[in-house]
Protein: DNA-directed RNA polymerase sigma-70 factor
Organism: Muriicola marianensis
Amino acid sequence: MNTTPEQLKETIHKAKEGNQMAFSSLLDRFWNEVYNFQLGRTKNENDAEDITIQTFSRAFDKIQTFDEAYEFKTWLFTISKNIHVDLLRKRKRNILEQSSPGNSDAIKKVLDDAPTAEDQLIKDQNLASLLGHIRNLKPHYREVINLRYFQELSYAAIAEELGEPINNVKVKLLRAKKLLAELIKGK
């Protein structure tokens, strides 16, 4: 999708005003570039896709902070790079925590993962609460949550099921998760 710098500035301006079509346009325009950038860094398709999704989610949440003196693609790449660095730090920290000699008792506790009756009751209550929050979402958001997390379909399978482009499915799922998080927090 070739756009002139003026068209891109206009699209960014509309996105800053909350125009959903502008967000979709920016996602369509830059998705492959951010994904390929991450694929080159991570050498892992799943990580690249997850980081790309997080990149657009963070960018759209912080679109008001974008300074138009810079290139939008550079801004996205910077966000993407920071998310990747955070992921690497988290993984490194997890590996260090697991490998320290003082953790043998903690490891034994983790190995006994059979849920107690209390754990099962809490899990059931949390699931009932989560399902109640999901029921409060609009039908198209409920559907995409159901397909992804309860039926465990891939993005491609969801796109085929809904008859929508895969990027629209990703954006819809991002919005659904954000709305669900707000419902859970009680906003």
Remarks:
- The chain has a mean pLDDT of 84.
- The chain has two domains: 5-98, 114-185.
- The two ends are 37 Å apart (CA to CA).
- DSSP finds nine helices and no strands in the chain.
